[in-house]
Amino acid sequence: MKQDLRHFIAAAVILSLGLSGVAVVVAGMDRAKAEARSFLVAARAAAFVYGQEQTVDEVDEGATQAFFEALPPQVSGLEGALVLRKTKIKAHSDPSREGTNLSRDSLSDKAIYDAGRQMKSDVAKNLEEREKSPDLKFEPYPESRLVRKKGVLTVQVPSKVDGDYEALVQLEGTPTPAPRGFPWGLLVAMVLSIAMYAGARRAVSGGALVAVGNVLLLGSALYGGFSVLPNWRGDARATDGDAEVSLVGGLLEAGLDEVTPPEQRSELLYQLGLDPRGRSLPVLSDLGSDGAPTLNAEFAEAQTKGDTMAAIKWAIPIGLLAMLLFTLGFMGLTGRAWIELVSHRRAYAYLAPAMVGLGVLVFIPVTYGIVLGFMNRVYNDFQFAGLANYVGILSDTNIAAPTNFYFTLGVTIMWTVLNVFLHVSIGLFLALLLNDEMLKARGVYRVLLIVPWAVPNYITALIWKQMFHNEFGAINFFLAGVGLEPISWFQTFWPAFFTNLATNTWLGFPFMMVVSLGALQSIPTDLYEAAYVDGASRWQRFKNITLPLLMPALVPAVIVGTVWTFNMFNIIYLVSGGAPNGATDILITEAFRWAFERDSYGYAAAYSTIIFVILVVFTVTTNRLTGATKGAFE
Amino acid sequence: MSIIGDSRPWSPGRILKMVFLTIMTFATLYPVLWVIKMALTPSQGFDASPNPFPTDPTLDNFRHVLFELPFFTWLLNSLIVSVVTTALGVFLACTSAYALSRFRFPGRAPAMLSFLVTQMFPGVLMMIPLYLIMDTLGLLNQLLGLILVYSTIAIPFCVWMLKGYFDTIPKELEEAALMDGASTGTIFWRIILPLSLPAVAVTALFSFMTAWNEFILAAVFMNEDKYTLPVGLKQMVGQFATEWGYFAAGAILVSIPVMALFFALQKSLVGGLTAGGVKG
Q: Which distant-in-sequence residues (6+ apart) come within 8 Å of A176 by Cβ?
């Protein structure tokens, strides 16, 4: 009777607590960003002051030192500041250290020095990139470094002196931005919706009541997403914005104004206010009529829009989840699921840790990867591209080109079939020879023949590649020794394919040998003896006893071996490297090249998804046909 | 003693077998011998002569690798990562496999399928998302991060293998113990696990190798101070000039622990890998 009310309350609580939880986490991140911003802005201002002191004659020597001394009341939580040029401290919040060199013995000094070197090279790299694509808007200080350690925030900004970024400004301290509070509106919505649901129960029941409950939940979710959360976050951000305006005002008074020529002021404010990641609009707009900076209206508007989108992105799934739980609960399904969970709790407890690990480190990345297959990267942003990547891959019918999908697929299938065939036949043959208790030194052979399995495969690959070297490789010396022409192994397709095949055969047969050997040893000898007494020939015994009894062990091994070989990245990548011209690449190395060499991650993700689908179809089909894992599911 | 075939150890058939096996063994070991030769030869060039035995052996390359490179740092990192991965992977695989083998519960088949399916995910698909996740969790450039990733890579195969092996252990044993008042935990630790030692050993070997040999993820996730052995070793193979003598010496040092484990466990390897499959 009261059951449905309880389910509704549970759903409403999950909804509001879930959303508040997300809000609190997001607020924490906002707060951390705000902390960093006040230091970043001050550090940029100091870098500018120091730069002016060095390059402009009228600015006093010691302007930076004076600026530092005036800083503490402006930047809350500031504990230390310094300007470093090469290894010399040019200004310091503690005047006694001004003019001294960094100490080689001090770890913190060394860290500052290293940061300076790193930033200098980052700036150089950034400038280079900028020259390559001039239409891109690059952020001016991407090289700033923010480090948070045990509550102390350290901000480092490179400073340009005489056209070179060999100086840096470092600020250190424990900033305290405004606290965030709690979005109480969500709890109000929760209480209201519960009261309304309780009221509705008096009027309606059954399907209508489910509908009312769902509408109430959806309404609360949308109210939270469109109104409570963005407004609450916006208020906090407005406080941050005001704090930044007053901070910059303070910095101007503290000496920034004195050293800034009037024509540079608006550009400077623009630079100070830029977002550290260069993604959004500058926070501050040009100087107002009274000479003070103001908040950029465009920026505030874009931020509100962004906040609403972010809140909706969370509110909708959480709302749907609450609705699902409520509906299932109403139908009495959650109770049953709970009973199942409790009655099998031991099994689930045993299984849970591995599943959680797989979930976080395998399934989430893979899902993410699959989603990226529908995206395209435009500079640093992913944009939805629909099926374009798949169409691009599958509709290219220029089959003769080595980077064509169907060409690569053909090579991959040939590669897999030949490898697995060689692994199984060599492995099985050796196992049959070794499965003879009377054979002398059997253990020695067995141990030595599994050595290739024990050698890390990247080492194998590098060694074999060198053995196939045109001039210095042992294989060509052998060929010369028996009077044959040396072969340029990596110039044409078949020899290059052969190098991969030889390497992988070498390292793959021991696995099949060991599997076969184990299976052979488990076949009872009396079966053979009975067949022998009945007059069966050696071949008949092999065909009618050995092979059928080997199958249960071999088939799963072949399936696993096929999947491994299909995705055998290291050998192809390190031995032939796809030579000539990517012709010997298999699908997995081709996907890797799209991602990391041709810089087209969406395309690579689509490629990988296709590989995954091929393998799943293969496994499911062979499983159906052979019943390889049937026993396992019983 | 079988009634089939020749009972003399030196029958012509067996001698033929031994000749063939000797040739195969030599062919298999040829590249390995050659690496040993390079490691013992002072020059850093790649030796081209097909003779696989060293002519003028010295241990200089080993001395250089051991004492002039941060070899012991890499070794320590690799050891920590591999040993903890093995312990964690085997433990989690054992409990999961036991649940899948002994209990019937809703979601069992999907769970088994999900372990199987992970074997088919192309690593390339996961690399960038995994990097972002590790970054979010603050696990980049942390040995713990590598340990967690390697364990999850190793677990699925281990679960399937162990589950197959657990399936072959008769249920009657457990039922008898239950009658005697043993708890599920006791049954698992005192009966199932000791009986499954060969399979557990193989699982451990497999997890250890996964962690010990992996280099792409380690190269992407770790900075210079936290390199593992494979990443350190790979650095010696340059695009143009490779110090082959050092590389060969390093390769031998890296391979020795895995070889030792293989030799120690080879008996279990033969039984452990297949027992589950044979019962099927």
A: A35, A76, A77
